[in-house]
Amino acid sequence: MASIREIAKLAGVSPATVSRVLNADETMSVSPATRTRIIKVANQLNYHKVENLGPKSPKQSNKLSIAVIKTHSSKRENDDPYFRLIQEGIALEAGNWNFRLETLKLGEVSLEQLAQFGAVLTIGAFTDETLADIYKVNQNLIVVDNHFASSRYDLVHTDFAKQTEQVLDYLYEQNHRQIAFIGGEIRTVDLNGQKQYLLADVRTTAYENWMTIHGLSDNIQIKTGDWTMGFALNATNALIEASGDQLPTAIISASDPMSIGIYRALQLKNIDIPETISVFSFDDIEMAGFMSPPLSTVHIDSLEIGRVAVRLAKERISDGRKTALRVEVASEIIVRDSVRKNKLS
């Protein structure tokens, strides 16, 4: 059962105010709106006066808990700060509101379990069927980092499609026309952890559309695979071999860790960055500014993505919000020394 302090925090008032309102203290001077908000939060959390309590039910004990399920592995989370920081943001904001977090493992989680939580946060591209099944048992569903999910759920994601266009606009202004793209593939996952169908990353689609609209469809070069440095290194080698004497003048990378592989491939072939090929990336991991040359990239506040997800869950749990919201967390282009103006022939 929720405590007076937990109700007070969610309602934005003092514990004393909550206590007096719930005990119908007529001498308490409080606005009707505040009184209504306190009662609403208490009802949402199944609060009852202590003397009337029987045994605590699982539903009551889990009302202030949030389940987290994610499509990516622990290894990828360790290798890619983007996912690690989302998880840290979730933990920080949950702590602020006294929510208990429980990360559930794919293949071991059941819909019956998810029904018992105050809210469910999914991270990554789960199948449409999986999200629909979760929503049937728990409508406090927050979908993180999935641009393709139904708008009936709360969604939190980046603006990477827009920023891909901004990066391409910038490269175009720097006279780049032979622009290649190296990115990752997304496979949807079900609750058993089984990979299902393939999705195109929004950056890949935005790149292809932008090149076509700007009359550069003949220059489109795309290499996609897993999100690793090793794949990016091999993709860069394949790109160079396929290009012959017409090397791309710029490469867009879908993530900073992949850019490390791109840098290595170019260095091994004695291709200078940015004199011969410019590189622009996404994520702005801490290492990006210390690479040689420092990496131009798109900075995203991954920590805030996690925080926003928990705030949405809080609104669902304590405020009873029913209308689905879509939150796009803005990112910022950071230009460093890995890009230079190209000389048009």
CATH level-3 fold name of the largest domain: Rossmann fold
SSE order, one letter for each helix or strand: HHHHEHHEHEHEEHEEEHEHEHEEHEE
Output the number of helix runs. 13
* CA-based shape: elongated
CATH architecture of the largest domain: 3-Layer(aba) Sandwich
Note the beta-strand portion: 15-25%
Structural class: alpha/beta
The helix content is 40-55%
Biggest sheet: strands, sense, closure? 6 strands, parallel
| Number of separate structural domains | 3
Q: Could you explain how this protein is built, in words?
A:
This protein has 345 residues and is of the alpha/beta class. The chain has three domains: 4-56, 434 Repressor (Amino-terminal Domain); 60-158 and 302-330, Response regulator (Rossmann fold); 160-300, Response regulator (Rossmann fold, 3-Layer(aba) Sandwich). Helix content is 41%, strand content 19%. The protein has helices at residues 4-11, 15-22, 32-44, 58-62, 74-79, 81-96, 111-115, 128-137, 160-173, 202-213, 229-243, 256-268, 302-319; strands spanning 65-70, 100-103, 119-123, 141-144, 154-158, 179-184, 186-189, 195-199, 221-225, 250-253, 278-283, 296-300, 326-329, 331-334. The strands form three sheets. It has a six-stranded parallel sheet, with helices on both faces. Helix 1 crosses helix 3 (32-44) and helix 9 packs parallel to helix 10. The chain is elongated and about 80 Å long. The termini are far apart.
